[in-house]
Design brief:
Layout: H1 7-21, H2 25-38, H3 43-55, H4 59-72, H5 77-89, H6 93-106, H7 111-123, H8 127-140, H9 152-182, H10 190-199, E1 223-224, H11 232-237, H12 239-252, E2 257-258, E3 280-287, E4 290-291, H13 293-296, H14 300-306, E5 321-326, E6 330-335, E7 342-350, E8 355-359, E9 362-364, E10 372-374, E11 380-384, E12 390-398, H15 404-421
């Protein structure tokens, strides 16, 4: 293929490609023939003509043109895929597999060759391996093609094959690991149980996505075990006192403000239904690293309990602590927090039925008085589908795996960001 085509050749290729993209390969054929007449080694043209001959049932002509295309460009994945279909038509299964494998090696993320290999394996009775490649095909299928009517039966077939494969794999893995898993404490095997769930499609691999200050190399753990924090029992012991102070606040209906207060010049996005209303209300004790004196003074026992926890300390940004009140029927949509340098902590106080928290794919039902610690940079949401008010105390603590030096650097980096962008810039809840 000429690396510097003439203007005439370039124009012919452009016209032929446009017709092909618009589903008019027959109309493009004459143009591709003209391209080959000008450039006998034009791989794309030879591949298109070979594919057309294959569709018309002229296997000899198709093979000749496809082999010429690959001689001109051995890295042309589409030609390998077309040659695979040709071999399959002739009943040469091993050669068909060899050709489609060549296409996949060249472009592993192309959905078409993955689907073609799945079909070949399925025809050979290798259903498990076929299910794996159907899964690859669905993964790599462009979103723009998913709604095309001519692909719906293929997509449905692929989805059914993947589901069947995952169910069989789950059973197989459970059989092979069950004795070992049951012989140990559940916490000891937690990571590997999660791995098994990912392999069998029961759960996904969760990742953290900090919006402002990401800390690499920290594990993405959705919900931590409160038993691993030596300060947690002391905070939980203060639950009756904290609940009493909350009831006093609610009785006087004092100090709660909308949690979502989007500046006028910023888009409201998914939080628009909650913006500037008390469906999601907050009573702040500390906000952006400042103590809200009049409000905190009304909750001395709550403050004393919070002082027992290693709260994040960043001048101008943290600590942040508040009572979070969610009215009946309210849903906080999925979102991500600003930094994984901290964990978000909930102390559930008033928890009616039909309330919950989802972090990644883990759903937690709050229990009054029992702390919940989670990484809020993992996509999470909360809801109150009851007919009563839900209230939790929310505060942040340093991530337990950060060293003292790393904490100091977080403080220094945050200060630098504020200096660089301006103290009033929205950096999220850093």
């Amino acid at each position: 293929m000429d690396p510097h085509p003439s203007p005439q050749l370039a124009a012919l290729v452009a016209q032929a490609e446009a017709l092909t993209r618009n589903g008019r390969p027959q109309d493009a054929a004459g143009l591709w023939e003209k391209v080959v007449a000008l450039d006998p080694d034009h791989a794309t043209a030879l591949n298109q003509l070979g594919a057309l001959a294959l569709a018309q049932g002229d296997l000899g002509l198709a093979q000749s043109r496809l082999e010429r295309a690959l001689a001109a460009d051995p890295g042309l994945a589409m030609a390998h895929a077309s040659l695979s279909r040709l071999h399959a038509r002739r009943g040469d299964h091993p050669q068909a597999l060899a050709s489609i494998d060549a296409a996949i090696r060249i472009d592993p993320t192309a959905w078409g060759p993955q689907a073609e290999k799945a079909r070949l394996l399925e025809a050979a009775g290798q259903l498990r391996a076929a299910g794996l490649h159907w899964g690859n095909a669905l993964t790599f299928l462009p979103q723009a093609l998913r709604q095309q009517p001519q692909l719906q039966s293929l997509i449905e077939h692929a989805q059914a094959a993947v589901t069947r494969n995952r169910e069989e794999l789950a059973s197989h893995l459970d059989d092979r690991t069950g004795d070992l898993l049951q012989g140990h404490d559940r916490r000891e095997t937690e990571r590997m149980r999660h791995s098994l769930d990912i392999l069998s499609g029961r759960r996904s691999f969760v990742t953290a996505q900090p919006l402002t200050l990401p800390i690499p190399r920290l594990p993405a753990i959705p919900i931590f075990h409160r038993e691993d924090f030596d300060w947690a029992p002391q905070v939980e012991a203060a639950f009756p006192d904290i609940l009493a102070e909350l009831h006093a606040l609610l009785e006087h209906d004092a100090g709660f403000e909308p949690y979502v207060q989007t500046p006028d010049n910023e888009p409201k996005g998914q939080f628009a239904p909650l913006d500037r209303n008390l469906d999601w209300g907050a009573y702040f004790l500390w906000k952006h690293g400042r103590r809200i004196g009049a409000q905190a003074d009304r909750c001395p026992r709550t403050e004393a309990a919070l002082a027992l926890a290693p709260q994040m300390q960043v001048p101008g940004r943290a600590p942040v602590s508040f009572f979070s009140a969610l009215k009946p029927g309210v849903h906080i949509p999925p979102h991500n927090g600003a930094t994984n340098a901290r964990l978000t902590v909930h102390l559930p106080l008033i928890i009616p039925p039909d309330c919950g928290l989802r972090v990644g794919e883990e759903t937690h039902v709050w229990e009054p008085g029992k702390l919940v610690l989670f990484d809020d940079t993992i996509r999470h949401e909360a809801w109150n589908f009851s007919d009563r008010l839900r209230v939790v105390l929310i505060f942040d603590v340093w991530h337990p795996l950060l060293s003292a030096l790393e904490r100091d650097l977080v403080v220094r980096i945050t200060s630098a960001l504020m200096d660089f962008y301006g103290a009033d810039t929205d950096l999220g809840e850093l």
